[in-house]
Amino acid sequence: DTEVTQTPKHLVMGMTNKKSLKCEQHMGHRAMYWYKQKAKKPPELMFVYSYEKLSINESVPSRFSPECPNSSLLNLHLHALQPEDSALYLCASSPNPQGGSGNTIYFGEGSWLTVV
Amino acid sequence: AQSVTQPDIHITVSEGASLELRCNYSYGATPYLFWYVQSPGQGLQLLLKYFSGDTLVQGIKGFEAEFKRSQSSFNLRKPSVHWSDAAEYFCAVGLNFGNEKLTFGTGTRLTIIP
What we know:
The complex is a heterodimer of chains A (116) and B (114). Chain A has no helices and 11 strands. Helix content of chain A is 0%, strand content 55%. With 116 residues, chain A is mainly β. In chain A, a hairpin with a 2-residue loop joins β5 and β6 (53-57). The radius of gyration of chain A is 14 Å and the shape is globular. With 114 residues, chain B is an all-beta fold. Chain B is 0% helix and 54% strand. In chain B, the strands form 3 sheets. In chain B, strands 2, 5, 6, 10, 11 and 12 form a 6-stranded mixed beta sheet that branches. Chain B has a 4-stranded antiparallel beta sheet with strand order 3-9-8-7, with no helix packed on it.
C-alpha cells in the first residue's frame, strides 16, 4: 500500500481565516513533504521533514506554517493567506530521508485551496 | 544546478497509436529519474523510476522508459495508448543531498483522439 491521504480535498478560506491542511501516511516513511502546484505548472517544493524535524524550508512565507506531530502526520497551518496562494497543495512521503537508491517519493491526491 | 526539460508542452495522439514523451536532464552525475502522471484534478501517480542497472525500465499501465546517458534523456513510451491515458505527464530528477528533492519538468499534456 503506497497511500498518502490528504484532507480536506477542497478548502475555501478568507484572507483573515486560520485553517489547516492534513496529511497522513502509514507506510513507515520517515520523510514527508509539502509541495505547491499552480494551474498548468509543475509542483514546487515547500517543506521537507526528516524524522519529524523540519530539514528544508524553500523560503516559504511565514503565513504557511508546517507541523509534524509524529512520524505519520504532517500538517500545514494557513493564516492570512493571499488570493495568489490559491493552488493545489500536495503532500508526499518517502521511506528514507537520506535518499539513495530505491527511495521513491509518493504523493497524495492533494488539497485544493481557494483564498477569497 | 540540475534541470529537467520536457520539450513538448502538448501532444495529441490517436487511440491505439504509439506514444513517446521526451525528457532531458542536466546534472553532473547519474540522477534518479522518475515519470509521474497527473489526471485532471488529481495528485501525482508514479509510473516508473530509474536508479541504476538496466536502462530500459518497465512501469505501470504498460509504460516503459529508456535511460540514455549519452543523450541525457529518459523518454517515456507506450506502444498503444488508451483514452484513459489522457493526462499531464511529468518527468522528474531526484537528487540525494541527504534529503530527496524532486525537480520537475514543466510537464507534457497528452490528448487522445478517437
